[in-house]
Amino acid sequence: MRRAIEMNPTLSDDLQPVDWDRLADIFKRAPLGDRDPAELRLAFGNSGVRCFAWQDGKLVGAGRAITDGVRYAAIFDVVLLPEFQGKGLGKAMMLYLKEKSKARNVLLHSVPGKEKFYEKLGYRRMRTAMGLFENPDAQKRGGYIE
Fold first, then answer.
1. Sign of the CA dihedral with 80 first, then 82, 83, and 85 last
2. Which of 41, 82, 108, 112 yields a CA-CA distance of 20 to 30 A from 118?
3. Domain layout of the chain by residue ranges
């Protein structure tokens, strides 16, 4: 029998308490693949907007965005432990990132198969988005590009 998780999460943008090895483990368990903890620290540190989700003092999820603070923002790396998915915390994180970005138009990079979650939040598929990737073959295998 699976024990229900009592949800009383806290959202924060503070980098100081983040254990980057734990965040890399969250990516792996989500499952969103292997991430280097040092690269995560740099990416989140260099992003203008970030959201860390905490439950009982433990990191359970994160997300980040880059923004011009007016017209456009782009959301990346939204990740949440599987046992916290489907309970409203992912939605709260997305709303937090959008609000903190202060942008009227928000783009995001989604894992294939998760589009319905974002559609419920008002996001729509784009016909004109393009990407230039370091490893296009891996992106194609992952279902991210044509």
1. positive
2. 41
3. 10-109
Task: Kindly report the pTM of this predicted structure.
Answer: 0.89
Instruction: Please say whether the dihedral angle defined by the alpha carbons of residues 86, 16, 40 and 74, taken in this order, is positive or negative.
Output: positive
Checking if the pLDDT of 13 tops 90, the result is yes
Question: Angle at Cα 42 formed by Cα 37 and Cα 43, nearest 5°?
Answer: 95
- Contact indicator for 74, 65 with CB cutoff of 8 Å: yes
Q: Which two tokens stand for residue 7?
A: 């949800």
Is CATH 3.40.630.30 the right assignment for the domain spanning 10-109? yes
